Amino acid sequence: MPAKPAPIKKAVKKEAKKEVKKEEPAPAPAPEPAPEPAPEAPPAEAPPAEAPPAEAAPAEAPPAEAPKAPTPPPSEEPTSEPLELVVEDVNDTSVTIQWRPPATIGNAGLDGYTVECCKEGTGDWKAVNQELTVSCRYVIKNQTTGDHLNIRVVAVNAGGRSPPAVLPDAVLVREVVDRPKIHLPRILRQRYVVNVGEKINLVIPFIGKPQPAVTWTKDGQPLDTKRVNIRNTDRDSIFFIRTSERADSGVYEMCVKVDSFEDKAQITLQIIELPGPPASVKIVDTWGFNVALEWTEPKDNGNTTITGYTIQKADKKTGDWFTVLEHYHRMNATISDLIMGNTYGFRVFSENKCGMSEAATATKTFATIQKTGIDYKPPVYKEHDFSEAPKFTTPMQDRSTTVGYSTKLLCSVRGFPKPKIMWMKNQMIIGDDPKFRQINNQGICSLEIRKPGNFDGGVYSCRATNEHGEATVSCKLEVKQAVIADADKK
């Protein structure tokens, strides 16, 4: 460039002046050769002859004061190389790199970066980006899986290209392997218990790169896809059973695999239901006011552990059952405080996590509590005939109720043998209509009308019959419409 020689010339002039100034002291020793002969004087005086021009050097100052040439603009230089070029991510089709700006940019600034790559061993560098990128991060796309790429980044400005920042090693284009890992929820780390018929929906998260292959087995065998639905995403596996059955119980194993790495997790699923009754119940011994019972475990425990038993007794005369022990853990018990002279039967229910068995096992024999210590001979009495036709001792009263509010009709009757009770509405037998609830306990008869409507009013009758006759009592029921307050109407 023409601008560069100018400074070089100035430097030469300055050096010349310095040489002249350095030569000026040289004439000082000239007087010493003065005593030499005259013939040789002219040559000896030659150096001093140059002294006057040296002394006249100050006369050349005016040319130095002449106007200087304009200083040329500073040259535009490339930046230094980009810093800290690293690989951020690699998958099977792309490589993501990032770097830091150059340490020295200069007055020409920075226009952008060019990313270049070539296959290992070729040396054929090609620019990946057609236009300069100003970002310090770039994704090299559309690469072939398995290729080894050499990558470099060059900073560009008006001064040209900087030295390249080159990755030290070639990059293999393939998915980076992250070891697979199953994050089993805490609730599934123990036995997972579900009642028969319930829905099962379990979500088990996992990680791994590339996308792990997920497989399931049950007790070491492939899953029955008709019973279990598995849906896998890139983050979790969903285990779903619409309606659980006891056959679904077992140990399920989930396996996630990436290349030669794998991780496994087991889920123990237990489907339970109500147990069956004890296999047998028997009376072992009877003494005083006590009866000893024994029973055996149920044949069907509901697929879970039996947690206890409930024991009930019933007087043979009444046949009403009463609970004497519940949540009892042993399989033998002593029932005490029985009434002397009475005869009892016993039955046992089994229990598990789902609840108490629907049925019970009863003793085949009865236990009679004998009277002890008194030899009593009862007198002989003429047998009294207690036969009596039905008779209502408490009649029914007319009642009124409001639509939607349940009401109850009551009366009492006596007779022997025990009368048969029949309820009627407007001379029509009610029967087993679920709207009505009929109860007869020790001669107290009640008819509950559940949430009566406008058409449930009328005449209700209770008829009692036995082999000696019959009796009827009636009342009138009025069903009123509910009154709505004026404020509510508004």
Automatic annotation (TrEMBL):
Residues 180-268, 390-474 form the Ig-like domain. GO terms for cellular component: myosin filament. Residues 26-51, 60-76 have a biased composition (Pro residues). One of its GO terms (biological process) is cell adhesion. Residues 1-81 are annotated as: Disordered. Keywords: Cell adhesion, Immunoglobulin domain, Muscle protein, Repeat, Thick filament. It comes from the Eukaryota. Residues 81-176, 277-371 form the Fibronectin type-III domain. Residues 13-25 have a biased composition (Basic and acidic residues). Binds to myosin; probably involved in interaction with thick myofilaments in the A-band. Belongs to the immunoglobulin superfamily. MyBP family. This is Myosin-binding protein H.
